[in-house]
Amino acid sequence: MAGAGGGNSDVQWCFSQVKGAIDDDVAEADIISTVEFNHSGELLATGDKGGRVVIFQQEPESKNQPQCRGEYNVYSTFQSHEPEFDYLKSLEIEEKINKIRWLPQKNAAQFLLSTNDKTIKLWKISERDKRPEGYNLKEEDGRYRDPNTVTTLRVPVFRPMDLMVEASPRRVFANAHTYHINSISVNSDCETYLSADDLRINLWNLEITDRSFNIVDIKPTNMEELTEVITAAEFHPNQCNTFVYSSSKGTIRMCDMRASALCDKYAKLFEEPEDPNNRSFFSEIISSISDVKFSHSGRYMMTRDYLSVKIWDINMETRPVETYQVHEYLRSKLCSLYENDCIFDKFECCWNGNDSVVMTGSYNNFFRMFDRGYRQDVTLEASRENSKPRSVLKPRKISTGGKRKKDEISVDSLDFNKKILHTAWHPLDNIIAVATINNLYIFQEKLN
Amino acid sequence: MECAFDAQNLISISLRKIQSSRTQRGGIKLHKNLLVTYVLRNARQFYMSKNLSQAQRTHQYEDVAAARERQEYLELTGSFTELADDFYCNFTGLESGNWHCGAHQPSGQPAEVAHQDASPCAMASPSDPELMVPEACWSCADKSTWELPMPNAQANQKTVLDLDTHVVTTVTTNGYFHSDCCAQPKQPQGAQCYAKKRKMDASYHIVDPEFYLPDFGPVPCKRMRTDDDTHSDSEQLGSTNISNLISVLGSGGLSDFVSWQQTDLEQIFATQTICLKHTLLTGSGWTRAIEAF
């Protein structure tokens, strides 16, 4: 069966692992809210609604099974954010992790940024596999010795111990956002990063926590004149002066920080005219961009709105170069989706390592891949039924009308409570992480 | 007709979403509520375009008395805290099973008001330019000192969601609200009143959430609304601009979403104007309603 991935139309995807509880009774705190590979792909981080971060590490490839890439096992788990209460505004601040972004690795330790609605934290994840022994003034259990009993001196030495992974908060960037943070993005200079909320974007230095620079402010003087909010923001992967932010009106603005300190005036505005034939009560909602991602090359950027994925050439602002319909069959269901709030779901999207394939989630635990080169797309499903090790995923088809063929699923039978909002693609290999509500699925390319 | 019904259904659903967003954990979601207001605007435009053409055909020569009887509104009285408690406690978010096409049921005698005297406000039909709408000030009891507003030739319609019956009704108003009509508030017996005058204003004073921020670098000072802005803003009532839609939503509009806090109601009231109208039903006393548009 044909698949999509890696620029080769023959790629087939196999189930590898699933993490999380099996039972259907989902604890709200376990709902996965973000998924992110680090720059090497060795580590995979997830954040959940309970403020917890779980990091998985890929095992080295086994010599016994050269056909399989290493499995991901739990590496570290820590509580990143706790619920807080703003007493001044009588407002509870959720501990839900909105985004995780890894920093490029500089030494043995790993660093990541995690954020909830108001506060960003820099975490250091380090390994400890040896400990000092042979102190002169301390016993092995830590009790201090009476100095009068010391008759000889010795040099303490490091002895091996069981591997321990420590996560410690190194920086806390707080009190800079009035509105809810939706994005963080580390700059290619590895010194600064941006954080974006509904109306503002701030620039931080990773070393400095008590101040940040406001670089975008779209808050109107009169809030009654508010017409759009910022929905996502990201730095260019190579140009440290360039970043983009998307809006609820379906526009993307690219800004150059060299032009001025306050980047309210964009350098480029990417906007596609609305098709008047598709005008409905919900036109504004479905055109709101939920995610924006630069390609690894930096030449393209991808946006996700409710029904489609669009690829933009950063050199052309008038229209996207490619548009992929994720689930166009939902256009006639918008009223129901509005009623049950599904229309407000914010789907993310991601690129594969060489920018030839893009992926995004949908409902019924479906996720979609679009091969840009071969112009193919495939719908796959993340479910426990297909969770036999190395079982090949079968492409799914949705019946949009008329007679339903065998193995097709009708639109009316889709489960809108099962949604895939967060997906991630290994930066180098064909390994993907797909998050359902409370489970994390890992699929790999089938190797012959 | 079916599309008009869908539009009204959407309005009802949208208003409920806005209402329920205020009690959601994590605070009000600005993005989601902005999108909901867009749906409200679109549905309103569609609904009013259908309703207005129908109303013009059937109510061209409406009797003034019938118009008064058809709908009476009482101003909000009593303590703000008490009202806010009612506001939250009585809204169950149930689906509205039926809707009324504009005209409300006729009312008899005004219900007994436990709080301060308030004058009923009759809503004029769009075809009756001579009908004055006496709109009392929040704390004004001396009716003779009221300054009646000039009728606006361009009548507007208002959509009201009754929180008790979950009925959405559309009424017509004379176009803009009257602002201050008296200087000194009257303190009634046994009722808690606000000393500050209450403006019948479609707009409201915005509470900038940054007002509460500790010193953290330069924070732009946004201009607070003044009385001078009131009249100019009330003229925008007929506009389909989304900002105007936001400005007349329920208890304060979109900026209110950012600043609304359940437990600090007194502080909020001190800096913004709330306008809630009660619908008088025959013999049923008080109800609560969200007024939009």
Short description:
The complex is a heterodimer of chains A (448) and B (293). By secondary structure, chain A is mostly beta strands.
Report on this model:
Chain B: It holds the Pfam family IER. The complex is a heterodimer of chains A (448) and B (293). Chain A has helices at residues 283-287, 334-339, and strands at residues 13-19, 32-37, 43-48, 52-58, 72-79, 84-86, 91-93, 99-102, 110-115, 120-133, 157-173, 183-186, 192-196, 200-205, 213-217, 230-235, 242-247, 252-256, 268-270, 291-294, 300-304, 308-313, 322-325, 349-351, 357-361, 366-371, 376-381, 397-399, 408-410, 422-425, 431-435, 440-445. Chain A is mostly beta strands and 448 residues long. In chain A, the strands form 9 sheets. Chain A has a 4-stranded antiparallel β-sheet, with no helix packed on it. Chain B is of the alpha+beta class. In chain B, 31% of the residues lie in helices and 8% in strands. In chain B, the strands form 2 sheets. A 3-stranded antiparallel β-sheet of chain B has the order 2-1-5. A 3-stranded antiparallel β-sheet of chain B has the order 4-3-6, with helices on one face. In chain B, helix 1 (2-21) runs antiparallel to helix 2 (30-58). Chain B is globular. The interface between A and B is large, with 44 and 48 residues.
